[in-house]
Specification:
CATH architecture of the largest domain: Up-down Bundle
Distance between the termini: 69 Å
Number of helices: 14
Helix content: over 70%
Number of domains: 2
Radius of gyration: 28 Å
Length: about 375
């Protein structure tokens, strides 16, 4: 038994090591665009500051570039520009104060305090203030360069310009992962609605509870998709290499909008059905309607890559809209489910190109 237990533990450790190795490799691969950006921009900033401007130790130019870009995947031009501004505020404030009060221990305290206050007044971003403070300390602690303390301001400007140029010329966002986030979201919405259908068909509280849990898990996927799409659009707006993808990203933004609305509707339906099925009565008609809604969501998720799926989704949603009449079922509790289905169908039809008035006309009167 002891030898068997030792074998299991060795197997577990071996599996854990392999998983850790895969995670490490995945981190490296995903960080390669950021690494290339940082290396290229930092080297260029160093060469310009040293070779063209004659700065013997262009430390600020290099550090500004590295801090502005960072390893995070959301190094959009806007965020990089904000960081560059924060850093240069720290450099300028510190350079001015060094001219007035000099360098030393108590001077460091004054410079740091003033820099943080100024940075917080300029921007609500905490990283903005920290970036300014770090660079102000380089100015306050290091000896003044040959060109004076304000030479570092020029170095900071060079580093910022290099960071912005590289952000545009070597984009780092990952459309493959972005597509995976959207696909995962629609898949989970489909699973939630399918679970709601099963719960209604067999009056199964466990299936309803699982469907509700799945619907609640959609928010994190929605947030991740929105975050990566924001980064992608920010970079594509300034990158000459990504001009052809701007229209595609605009379509992604519209799909994200309807996905957000669909997520809210699915949660509301799942919450209602979780209570409804506890009476033990199967509801085959409601199950059929929810199954059609699941088909609409499934096709909607495929519509960005498949034009046929877009037309199919519109057709299924049009038929479903005509069936969403509360009069089709008895009891207020059952009718509420149909009322909750109606905005899901309406929003889908509008996203698929139907004018709002026409989409509203397809729904039977309440």
């Amino acid at each position: 038994m002891s030898r068997h237990g030792d074998s299991l533990r060795r197997l577990e450790r071996s599996i854990r090591r392999r998983m850790d190795a895969r995670d490490a490799l995945d981190r490296v691969v995903r960080s390669l665009p950021a690494v290339v950006q940082i290396v290229v921009a930092s080297t260029a900033a160093y060469l310009i500051a040293r070779s063209l401007l004659g700065h013997e130790l262009p430390l600020v130019a290099v550090t500004v570039t590295i801090i502005s870009l960072g390893i995070a995947r959301d190094a959009t031009p806007r965020r990089v520009a904000e960081t560059v501004v924060g850093i240069n505020i720290g450099i300028v404030v510190a350079a001015l104060l060094v001219q007035v009060i000099g360098q030393g221990a108590w001077q460091i305290a004054v410079i740091l305090g003033v820099t943080l206050i100024v940075a917080r007044a300029v921007s609500p971003s905490a990283p903005f203030a920290i970036a300014a403070a770090v660079q102000s300390m380089l100015v306050a602690v290091l000896p003044a360069p040959d060109g004076g303390v304000f030479a570092r301001s020029l170095d900071g400007l060079i580093g910022g310009i290099m960071a912005l140029l590289v952000t545009a010329l070597i984009p780092r966002f990952d459309l493959v992962r972005q597509r995976g986030e959207g696909t995962a979201l629609f898949s989970l919405l489909d699973q939630a609605l399918t679970g709601v259908r099963d719960a209604l068909r067999s009056a199964d509280p466990a299936a309803a509870e699982l469907a509700l849990a799945r619907s609640r898990r959609t928010q994190s996927l929605l947030d991740e998709w929105g975050h990566s799409l924001e980064s992608a659009r920010g970079v594509a707006a300034v990158s000459p290499w990504l001009r052809s993808r701007r229209a595609r990203l605009a379509d992604e933004q519209r799909l994200l909008g309807v996905a957000d609305l669909t997520t809210r509707h699915v949660r509301a339906i799942a919450r209602r059905v979780d209570v409804l099925v506890r009476d033990g009565g199967p509801r085959p008609l409601l199950a059929e309607l929810v199954d059609s809604a699941a088909a609409v969501v499934r096709l909607l998720g495929r519509s960005r890559d498949d034009e046929a799926a877009r037309y199919a989704a519109r057709g299924v949603a049009t038929v479903l809209a005509g069936r969403c009449t509360p009069a089709a079922v008895d009891g207020v509790a059952d009718q509420v489910v149909i009322v909750l289905l109606r905005p899901l169908v309406f929003d889908t039809l509008v996203h698929l190109g139907l004018p709002p008035d026409e989409a509203r006309a397809l729904l039977p009167p309440l």
